[in-house]
Write a structure and sequence with these properties.
- With about 240 residues, the chain is α+β, with helices and mostly antiparallel strands.
- Helices cover about 35% and strands about 25% of the residues.
- The protein has a domain of about 100 residues: Immunoglobulin-like (Sandwich), CATH 2.60.40.
- The strands form two sheets. Strands 3, 4, 5, 7, 8 and 9 form a six-stranded antiparallel β-sheet that branches.
- The longest helix has about 30 residues.
- The chain is rod-shaped and about 225 Å long.
- About 15% of the residues have low confidence.
Length: about 240
Amino acid sequence: MSLSRRTAARSVRMLGVTAASAALALSAAGTALACDISEFSATAACDGTKGVITVTDKDPSGVPAEITVFLENNGGDLRQVGVAQTVKGSAKGVTVSFAEDWEPNAEYRIHVKAVDGVKVVVDKDIPGNLTTPSKACEADDTSTPSTTPSSTPPDSSTTPPPAETTTPSPSPSDSASDSAAPAPSASNAPSAAVQESNLAETGASSNTGLVVGIAAVLVAVGGGAVFFGMRRRGSSQR
């Protein structure tokens, strides 16, 4: 074999080794940049008086990941916390928060599903359930604040409420004079009922004709007696 052929064969071998090394390096770099469940973490804390669960994504490739949180009870899902949220991680870390009034020492399962295009790269739970602190978030102080007298002068434009008017009670003398007031004197004029009764008694009745007839007969008899008496007296005088 000539020198040129040896040199060419050596060059080809070197190129092959270099290409293989580059392929391994690229493969390693791709593996390092791929999304992994170890890049996700979760914590439970207090946001003022309310509890919150925060999930951090430190995936440098920025593959979108859907985060779902479940409250655990005796190894099973009791309920889902809120709705699932999507996060795109970074090397510094990107967080998503779930409002949850967690109880002390409660356990939560955090599930991560990352899809790169059409390929599912992560579909796992964060290793180990999240356990909340042993102390709950402090409630608001609802104690009534002490009242201090105000130094602001009262508003002169405000009209004070009218004073109550006390009605004087009647004195015993007034009551006595009222009770001793003379009753109205009875009128001498006959009442309508009396007038009606008198009219009924003195007016015409069903016996009026009989009385008038008897009176007429008596008058006639008396007149006849007087006439005959005077006639007899005249005849005796002759």
